[in-house]
Amino acid sequence: MVKLSEIYAVADGISPKRLSDEYCEKYGAYDNSGVLVDCGEDIQSVVFSLDLSFAAIEKAISTNANLIITHHPAIYGKIGDICVDSPLGNKLIRCIKNGVSIIAMHLNLDGAQGGVDESLRDGICIATNTKTVENQRIMHPLSTGGYGRVYTVQPCGLKTFQENVSKEFSTDKTIFYGDCDKRISRVASFCGAGVDEEAIAFAKRQNADVIVSSDFKHHLIGLALESGLAVVVLPHYASENYGFKKYYEKIRRQLDIPCVYHTDGELL
Q1: How far apart are CA 11 and CA 17, in angstroms?
Q2: pLDDT tens, 202-218?
Q3: Treating both helix axes as pointing N-terminal to C-terminal, what angle do 197-205 and 218-226 enclose, rounded to 10 degrees?
Q4: What's the CATH code of the domain at 159?
Q5: Which domain holds residue 30?
Q6: Per-position DSSP letters for 57-105, written without gaps between them
Q7: Residue 86 pLDDT more than 90?
Q8: Distance between CA atoms of residues 263 and 251, nearest Å
Q9: For the residues 97-117, what does the mean pLDDT come to?
């Protein structure tokens, strides 16, 4: 068994929480990364899951794991009460009753080198058979890493681009907006729900042909198209599960206790 603090030190070594603090201070964001629930027990096994889903909790209980590491913080905004008849309250009570601690690595992992946002770029490069990242610009740079990227890829048509990205990210729920034959050679990508007016303006300034992200609002799709950008919408889960699984692999190799990865497949 391993102390919770030792596991957190390994996780923080890959995606330091100071990056979350830096991002929030520089760019006016909010986050709640770190140890969210500490049941006070040494850790015998770990479940990794993008979200604190009921299925992830059941996986932990059934495998005698007493730590769940997530990307999205289960405790994020203000919590007025914790009641068993609400989904979040039920999850937290179930974890605590079963001695399951919870760690979340969110904005720090989004922006870390080799983190979720960089992994989205890497997956798109694999999908387009792009061997080397060239002419990259980062919208929100950090002391190491950053969030929001524009870069050059091997040219292809928009429809082909969308199909290859869908395949690489193991989803059939990707949709695109724009001329299916539009030539794509420069991509702007933002993991999760990262696109706003600033992101579209940044992509346009950096001569992107397409913008890839998740959870687009209607008016932002229209703004992107009117700005000359095609749009590819990945499911939020698919855009971030890809990189979070790589994070799991890095941590798993450094721990001497069992680690398993849980996927909520219906969200892919």
Answers
A1: 9
A2: 999 999 999 999 999 99
A3: 20
A4: 3.40.1390.30
A5: 4-110+241-263
A6: HHHHHHTT--EEEESS-SS-S------TTSHHHHHHHHHHHTT-EEEE-
A7: yes
A8: 17
A9: 99
48 has pLDDT over 90: yes
Together in a domain, 119 and 57 = no
Cβ-contact 187, 209 below 8 angstroms: yes
CB atoms inside a 10 Å sphere around CB 180: 12
Is 214:243 a contact under the CB 8 Å cutoff? Answer: no
Q: What is the mean pLDDT of the chain?
A: 98
Same domain, 96 and 145: no
Q: What pLDDT digit, counting tens, does each position of 179-238 carry?
A: 999 999 999 999 999 999 999 999 999 999 999 999 999 999 999 999 999 999 999 999
Is residue 118 domain-shared with residue 219, that is, in the same domain? yes
Question: What's the pLDDT score for residue 166?
Answer: 98
Q: What is the pLDDT of residue 268?
A: 87
Whole-number Å distance between alpha carbons of 240 and 57: 20
CA dist., res. 109 & res. 72, Å (int): 10
Give the total number of structural domains in the chain: 2
- Give the separation between CA 74 and CA 88, rounded to whole angstroms: 8
Q: Two tokens at 144?
A: 């190491």
| Number of other CB atoms surrounding residue 128 within 10 Å | 21
Which 3 state secondary structure label does DSSP give 168?
helix
| Among 116, 106, 103, 111, CA closest to 259 | 103
User: What are 213's strand-pairing partners?
Assistant: 233
Gap between the Cα atoms of 178 and 230, Å rounded: 5
Q: Which residue has the tokens 């399951």?
A: 100
Which amino acid makes up residue 121? R
At residue 223, the pLDDT reads 99
Residue 268 covered by a domain: no
Please report where in the chains the tokens 């992994």 appear, as a residue. 119
